[in-house]
Amino acid sequence: MKNLLVTGGAGFIGSNFVKMMLKKHPDYKIINVDVLTYAGNICNLREVEGAHNYKFIKADIRDREAIDKVFKGNDITDVVNFAAESHVDRSIVEPEIFLTTNIMGTQVLLEAAKNYWKINPGDKYCKKYKSGVKFLQVSTDEVYGALGRSGKFVETMPLQPNSPYSASKASADLMVRAYHETFALPINITRCSNNYGPNQFPEKLIPLMINNCINDKELPVYGDGMQIRDWLHVFDHCSAIDTVVHKGINGEIYNIGGNNERPNIEIVKLILKSLNKPEKLIKYVQDRPGHDRRYAIDNSKITTQLGWCPEYSFEVGIIDTIQWYLKNHDWVKNILNGEYLNYYSQMYTNILK
């Protein structure tokens, strides 16, 4: 049995991962730690609130005392660290929060894991790790920088981040690697391509365009819209992380991609077409600073070594995603009017009654 600590489990990817793991591994206990910033939406987890093997703790990963208490009070056996500031535009305006959360927060988690698991650096050479423990850092393909017209990101490429966000994630990755090399902490790092799917915060490209399209608002497109990304359905990403938790070779990095390269403008036009809206809603705006032109993931390592493969084609996944947002308009409305921020306090009040 695992007592799995999921940090940032109220966010887009984290909440989908928590729900999947509770369903797939009913004998595991999931401890979800989230500080509930603007991007943390505890409403995403309403359906599992009463589960006997699920526990939510409101805490900041930068708080050493709180994180130590989480480890000791829940006998944590594994960590999956989703917790991060992740929006590139926000990192350009306010980079400091990205450094403190993404780098220092990760170091706090690493130190807590090292101390609680009582890892002996000498074990590095004889491979005698405590059974079952693992620290999995969820990272991004943006740490590699930008690609030209050809080629794909592979795990051995040097890190060349181009935004404060990606620089903070690259720094966190290096800290995770350092704890493995210096202290023999059992780790894996996963680097994913752009995610999409249910419960994604509407500041990101696909939900923003869907919501604006539904409401006949302008669809802002950076530059010429020809920035290319490899799109990965969130359900595929979650299944890949589950695979790495159970099968990942200690110390290894795994790229997770969906094999779905698309220019941003193509996605915007596909959403318009699917919702029967005119292309005149598109508004080209000034490109953001340091905007990488192309990302593409080579996922052959995880597919050949661990046997994982993405199941969603983009054609199916994007239609499912559009339908989800159409059916869950109240969820989007609660995000936009800020109501979701009150749900945790209301939930806590009801518990006390």
Automatic annotation (TrEMBL):
Provide a GO biological process annotation: nucleotide-sugar metabolic process
The record ties this protein, via InterPro entries, to:
dTDP_Gluc_deHydtase, NAD(P)-bd_dom, NAD(P)-bd_dom_sf
Record key words, sorted: Lyase, NAD
Q: Give the EC number.
A: 4.2.1.46
* Molecular function GO labels: dTDP-glucose 4,6-dehydratase activity
Q: What class of enzyme is it?
A: lyase
Q: Which domain of life is it from?
A: Bacteria
Q: Where is the NAD(P)-binding domain?
A: 5-319
- Record family assignment: Belongs to the NAD(P)-dependent epimerase/dehydratase family. dTDP-glucose dehydratase subfamily.
What protein name does the entry list?
A: dTDP-glucose 4,6-dehydratase
Q: What organism, scientifically named, is this protein from?
A: Ruminiclostridium hungatei
